[in-house]
Design goal:
The chain is of the alpha/beta class. The chain has 10 helices and 6 strands.
């Protein structure tokens, strides 16, 4: 059996090294043929290196790079590499983001906090066209939706995530290819839905649900 060719992207060196190690030790022969530490590096790598499965972090924010992480990166990957199985590693547990990623055709979702053995299962499933969602995330998705007043849209969540991780409203607008007015409104709408009155409370919320890195 030929080795399964895998590319891994994560901006945390320890996570990247751990993921590489666990896949290389898997029962099925897996070869990590390339790694990337940003969305931009990942896109460049995929232009020159074919793989059987991509494993990527969801959140690799970098001010000034409009294509490097989150839903924007997943959409771009889907357009450029429509048949590529993608396994997403994430610290997020927000239902809207998780469902939006699955709706884009992501093949696997794995929590970074879970045992890395789940990553092996997800990659093996992706290689044969099956979807795998880690146990913790599966339980989160099986829960009833958050009450409507507190439910944020995927667009609002992306704005909040980028903002609390260091981008200014102008940078978030450029990153998401939206107007400054739209991004400012979405941030304000998110705070109103959550009942938050200041940015300190917004950071506390973001930390509690894994949006703050």
């Amino acid at each position: 059996m030929e080795a399964l060719r895998v590319i891994i992207a994560d901006d945390h060196p320890v996570v990247l090294a751990g993921a590489c190690a666990v896949l290389r030790k898997a029962a099925r022969s897996m070869e990590v043929i390339g790694t990337a530490d940003s969305g931009r590096a990942l896109l460049a790598l995929l232009e020159n290196q074919a793989c059987d499965v991509l494993v990527t972090d969801f959140s690799m924010p970098s001010p000034g790079d409009a294509r490097n992480d989150g839903m924007a990166l997943l959409r771009l990957l889907r357009r450029r590499h429509p048949g590529l199985p993608i396994v997403v590693m994430t610290m997020l547990d927000n239902q809207a983001i998780l469902r939006a990623a699955l709706a884009l055709g992501v093949t696997g979702l794995v929590e970074k906090a879970s045992a890395l053995d789940e990553l092996v299962v997800a990659v093996e499933a992706a290689a044969v066209g099956s979807r795998y969602v880690g146990q913790g995330l599966r339980e989160r998705l099986d829960q009833e939706d958050t009450p409507a007043p507190s439910r944020l849209s995927p667009h609002e969540i992306e704005v909040v995530r980028l903002y609390v991780n260091g981008m200014k409203v102008k940078e978030v607008a450029a990153h998401l290819n939206r107007s400054i007015k739209t991004v400012s409104r979405q941030k304000g709408d998110a705070m109103r839905k959550l009942g938050l009155s200041n940015h300190s409370e917004l950071y506390t919320y973001a930390r509690s649900c894994g949006l703050l890195i």
